[in-house]
């Protein structure tokens, strides 16, 4: 089967700077890759994150151009040398799935595309503690029953006071708290900090220490009263050769699956296989993709057997996101199939 390939570059603009313990982002560059086979069209999104994705490199756009040229010469997208480019692999995988269905941007035929929502956590971005509390209270008022706080950038005692204030208003029987440290805790302080945080009845904390400290991470997972979720720890790991050994050694309580950073759905499902063999839980999370990538991840997630709140609420962060049927309401992401997708031709026209 012969394909033709093109791409469009798009710079997403945040409504307000997105802050984590790794720094601040005001824009995020993504690439929409289109595959054509006759009259059939499929679209995927490559959205590598600076300082996190292994393929967030200078010259990535030139690599995408080269890959498209190779496809146009007859090479199948998944036969390309893309092992070191997980976001591009994800984009090609999505575009191929999109090609299978004549309906625009439908990759998986599940109840999600017929209106059944997926429960998601309400994400609270880094800010002052007062502003983070305002965000969290607003999320609860909007119907979220699981709130995820980004932590690690403020003074630790201040973050504890913030969580204490939140817990005084909302008990753990009413609202679940997740934390995401993005590797911010120092190796010699992590266990003490996790013990202190334990009094707030935390569901889980993502990546408390920096990745690639696997002996320490094993100790943290074995010792912490707060369940540990691996996130950055999985990025850049060859799941087929190293994934099972990593999961068996560290023994976390959860895995966080970001298909853009892990190389697509097939490789993410391999992580799920290893997790479930060890009775380890998991959930999927978007990685600041636009609605094109978010839609693909949400549809994929809906095809799997999971009931935990997912991390799929990032679509409303941008001023200039692609208009789509995706909506967030009362703690769910919903696909409203009576709404239309914005045409990517509009972006192409603007960029010319």
Number of domains: 2
Poorly predicted regions: none
Helix-strand topology string = EEEHHEEHEHEHEHEHEHHEHEEH
Note the beta-strand portion. 15-25%
Topology at a glance:
Layout (H helix, E strand, L loop, with lengths): L3 E17 L2 E15 L2 E7 L13 H13 L13 H14 L18 E2 L2 E3 L4 H13 L4 E5 L5 H14 L6 E5 L9 H8 L4 E5 L7 H10 L4 E3 L8 H12 L3 E4 L1 H4 L2 H13 L3 E4 L6 H12 L23 E4 L2 E4 L8 H8 L1
Parallel strand pairs: 5-6, 6-7, 7-8, 8-9, 9-10, 10-11
Antiparallel strand pairs: 1-2, 2-3, 4-13, 12-13
Helix pairs in contact: 3-4, 7-9
Your description of this structure?
- The protein is an alpha/beta fold and 352 residues long.
- It contains eleven helices and 13 strands.
- β9, α7 (239-250) and β10 (254-257) form a beta-alpha-beta unit.
- It is globular, with a radius of gyration of 20 Å.
- The model has no long low-confidence stretch (mean pLDDT 95).
Q: TL;DR of this structure?
A:
The chain has 352 residues and is α/β, with parallel strands linked by helices. 34% of the residues lie in helices and 22% in strands.
